[in-house]
Amino acid sequence: MMSRYAAFVFFLYFGVVSHGIEVEVKNDDKLCLYANLTVSFSVTYEIADNKNKTVSFELPANASSKGSHCSDINSALKLSFLDGHSWSVNFSLKDKNYQADTMTFVYNLNDSKVFPDSSSNETVTVTTKPDITDVGVNTSYSCKSKDTLVASLQANMTLSDVLIQAFIVGGNRSKNLTTCPADTPVTPTPTHVTNATTVAPVTNATTVAPVTNATTVAPPTTPTPTLPTPTVGNYSIRHDANSTACLLANFGLRIGFTQNKKYQEVNFDPPTEVSGSCGVDNSELILVSNNITVSLSFYNDTKKFRLHAVNVTINSSSGVFAQSSANLSLWEAAVGSSYMCNKEQNFTITSLLSFYTFSLHVQPFGVKNGLYSTAEECFLDSDLSFLVPIAVGVALSFLIILVLISYLIGRRKSRTGYQSV
User: Fold this and answer.
1) 391-397: which pairs have CB atoms within 8 A and are 24 or more residues apart?
2) Which of 43, 69, 77, 46 is nearest to 57 (CA)?
3) CB within 8 A of 49, min separation 6: which ones?
4) Span 141-159, pLDDT tens digits
């Protein structure tokens, strides 16, 4: 049976006390995961009069490691603290190396001690992918340098003094280390070369006049390729391995994002990792595919459900793109039913992030026997959508006839007045 406990240590650095946490996770009384690290958070949230406030706080000493677990190919470090907050990292093992797949920060805006004067009472989930890869199975990942991860526009996490061994063989920690690049000293590049031979400039050289009226040939332009329709993925979340699905979703997704003032679009392939949770008021679906992490949070007000929060992280060649919004009202349907939209839809998540969905069907609450309930169709799928252009055409025809009649009547009156003179 899995047993877990957390012990806490403190570091004194240049006279400033920094609170770190040391966690040992055991499986069948054998150590299977070890972590010793410091985590701090910065969150910007909305208060009255549409103003924002930013708070910073550290992972406290009373954080609980309940929920952390180990297996042969997957392990998770989960630390819960205060009133509904948590921080977790999921690891996976492949061949002789392991990596951190996702890092998730959950914060409860209803906690007035941490977020005073908050105008929201929602629980927000942000997810990112840390740069912890290719760690040898018999080594610990070490990074003393500070590493700030921007999970969204509203929240970021800073890690320091990190020492983690996510897969421990035989219950004994390894003394071997895989060090992060930030801790690796950089060899300075020489700025100049001495005793170099100086070549005198050539004088009295013949000057060739520039050729005028030359034909300029523009370089060929490569058209931007059109993306194919995204592959539709089918996703489900269960409370445990023995229960039926409590959240169902299937859709194809294209993501539009603006990074460094350049707009790009990318298709989201069916993910390599699906996780999430089902609750009475809140449910969550987290999808990880290649270098993209998508988190979808649903809210239930007892009458209707809706998609109320989205968080997207993309590790592109231009750097990390992260955007989130927690004030959405999308994919709305009555509780006990599902939401469906087969046609392509376009949703503006933030000024820098857009979603294009295809063959969308989702039910985050009230799933029975692992099957979708009766669907509420989107407007584009309903028969009413075909009536709109017809109604517009009829209205335009009526307007044209009305203008024509008015013109004929006016012309007749003007001709009658001319004849009476």
Assistant:
1) none
2) 43
3) none
4) 999 988 888 777 688 888 9
Strand (E) or helix (H) holding 385: helix 384-419
CB neighbour class for 301 (10 Å; exposed up to 12, middle 13-18, buried from 19): exposed
Report the pLDDT value the prediction gives residue 206, as an integer from 0 to 100: 45
Distance CA 389, CA 393 (A): 6
Per DSSP, the three-state class of 392 is helix
- State the Cα–Cα distance between residues 409 and 375, nearest whole angstrom: 53
pLDDT of residue 188: 52
Question: Given this model, what pLDDT does residue 417 score?
Answer: 56
Residue 338: which residues within 8 A CB-CB, separation 6 or more?
248, 361, 362, 363, 372, 373, 374, 375, 376
Which H or E element spans position 408? helix 384-419
Structure letter (DSSP) for residue 411? H
- The DSSP bridge partners found for residue 90 are 76, 102
Q: Is 131 buried (19+), middle (13-18) or exposed (0-12) by CB count in 10 A?
A: middle
**310 close to 328: Cβ distance less than 8 angstroms:** yes
Torsion of CA 303, 304, 308, 310, to 10 degrees: 130
Single out the residue of 130, 137, 68, 123 nearest to residue 102, CA to CA.
130
All residue ranges of the chain with pLDDT < 70 are 1-19, 153, 185-225, 381-392, 412-421
Count the Cβ atoms, other than its own, within 10 Å of residue 181. Answer: 9
